[in-house]
């Protein structure tokens, strides 16, 4: 027979309520009493009824993360790294992580949020790749469900977020290319409805204006954050006359696609054309040539978002509810060839 709270209460001579509160970690139980109860429970081989405890607290001890991606699986290293950070931090705090994938901006995507919230399957959610007008954020604000986001949004309302200063990052990498002698610089932006796409475009245009260089609108294009999307966008750019001598991609995966397109055009990347990315995913330093990029600490951001959300669920006040991190320019041979 499993050991019950009643068994422990009879052993230590305290009420079932006191035993329950001591095991649950409430601070209204004297420390000496708590130690006695915990030691007795351990000696008797007590194992808590987790579902019953969760029901009593109206908590699931589960966080939700709906990944916006096409297809039955995702291969984006950025999302893999972020998911690892979230998942490992959740486990450290003894929370489970419920992960779902749905195409972005689809009816199924928003339905997934409604199902998680209405079914009380999670205590809170983490959102990434926020949109300018993000109905996911608007819905969670309306439902008063705790959440934290990787990225900002123009949705009215306050919510905790962590973001990387994409505008400052694009200023850095654009200046770097200008210093390398490039004047015909193109950019492959993420989808226009993503908030970070706006910041990155603003940084590119700012740096070009500071150097009194014109932005050729034909060289401002958009991709879908996939390698194939970067490849197709770069092919369009390189087919123009004159063609750009440098391409900035809105993420590393698109930059890898752009490198492939440049090779097909017979160009030597790093010498005849410069290509840069954003993220510094693990494979960025192993491309041929290694990719110049803007580093953001993706794994640590995942951990930080998770900690923020768990703090909210525990009723704690966030000391820094809005965190803007600075990216680091990592210069490699895709923009500066080896001597």
Number of helices: 12
CATH homologous superfamily placement of the largest domain:
Response regulator
CATH class of the largest domain: Alpha Beta
CATH fold assignment of the largest domain: Rossmann fold
Mean pLDDT: 92
- Percent helix among the residues? 40-55%
* Biggest sheet overview: 6 strands, parallel
Distance between the termini: 75 Å
Provide a short characterization of the protein structure.
With 339 residues, the protein is α/β, with parallel strands linked by helices. Helices cover 43% and strands 15% of the residues. It folds into 3 domains: 5-48, lambda repressor-like DNA-binding domains (434 Repressor (Amino-terminal Domain), Orthogonal Bundle), CATH 1.10.260; 62-164 and 299-326, Rossmann fold; 166-296, 3-Layer(aba) Sandwich (Rossmann fold).
Which descriptors would you attach to this protein?
339 residues, alpha/beta, 434 Repressor (Amino-terminal Domain), Rossmann fold, 3 domains, 4-stranded parallel sheet, 12 helices, 43% helix, 15% strand
How is this fold's topology laid out?
Blueprint: H1 5-12, H2 16-24, H3 31-44, H4 50-57, E1 62-68, H5 77-92, E2 96-102, H6 107-118, E3 124-128, H7 135-143, E4 147-150, E5 161-164, H8 166-179, E6 185-189, H9 195-210, E7 220-222, H10 227-238, E8 246-249, H11 252-264, E9 274-276, E10 293-295, H12 298-313, E11 322-325, E12 328-330
Parallel strand pairs: 1-2, 1-3, 3-4, 4-5, 5-11, 6-7, 6-8, 8-9
Antiparallel strand pairs: 10-12
Helix pairs in contact: 1-2, 1-3, 5-12, 6-7, 8-9, 10-11
């Amino acid at each position: 027979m499993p050991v019950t709270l009643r068994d422990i209460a009879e052993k230590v001579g305290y009420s079932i309520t006191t035993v329950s509160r001591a095991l649950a970690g409430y601070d209204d139980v004297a420390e000496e009493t708590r130690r006695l109860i915990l030691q007795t429970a351990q000696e008797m081989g007590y194992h808590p009824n987790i579902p019953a405890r969760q029901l009593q607290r109206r908590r699931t001890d589960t966080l939700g993360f709906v990944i916006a991606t096409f297809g039955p699986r995702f291969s984006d290293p950025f999302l893999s790294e972020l998911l690892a950070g979230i998942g490992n931090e959740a486990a450290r705090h003894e929370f489970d992580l419920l992960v779902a994938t749905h195409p972005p901006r689809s009816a199924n995507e928003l339905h997934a949020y409604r199902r998680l919230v209405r079914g009380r399957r999670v205590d809170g959610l983490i959102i990434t790749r926020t949109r300018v007008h993000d109905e996911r954020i608007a819905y969670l604000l309306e439902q008063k469900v705790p959440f934290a986001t990787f990225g900002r949004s123009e949705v009215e309302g306050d919510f905790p977020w962590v973001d990387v200063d994409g505008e400052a990052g694009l200023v850095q990498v654009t200046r770097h290319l200008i210093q390398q002698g490039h004047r015909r610089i193109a950019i492959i932006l993420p989808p226009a409805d993503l908030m970070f796409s706006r910041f990155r475009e603003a940084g590119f245009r700012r740096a070009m204006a500071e150097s009194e260089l014109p932005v050729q609108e034909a060289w401002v294009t958009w991709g879908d954050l996939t390698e194939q999307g970067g490849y197709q966008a770069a092919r369009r750019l390189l087919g123009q006359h004159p063609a750009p001598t440098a391409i900035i991609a809105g993420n590393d995966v698109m930059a890898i696609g752009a490198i492939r397109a440049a090779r097909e055009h017979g160009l030597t990347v790093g010498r005849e054309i410069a290509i840069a990315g954003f993220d510094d995913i693990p494979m960025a330093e192993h491309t041929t040539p290694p990719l110049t990029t803007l580093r953001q600490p993706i794994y640590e951001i995942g951990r930080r978002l998770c900690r923020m959300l768990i703090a909210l669920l525990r009723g704690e006040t966030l000391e820094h509810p809005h965190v803007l991190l600075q990216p680091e320019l990592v210069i490699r041979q895709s923009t500066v060839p080896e001597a």
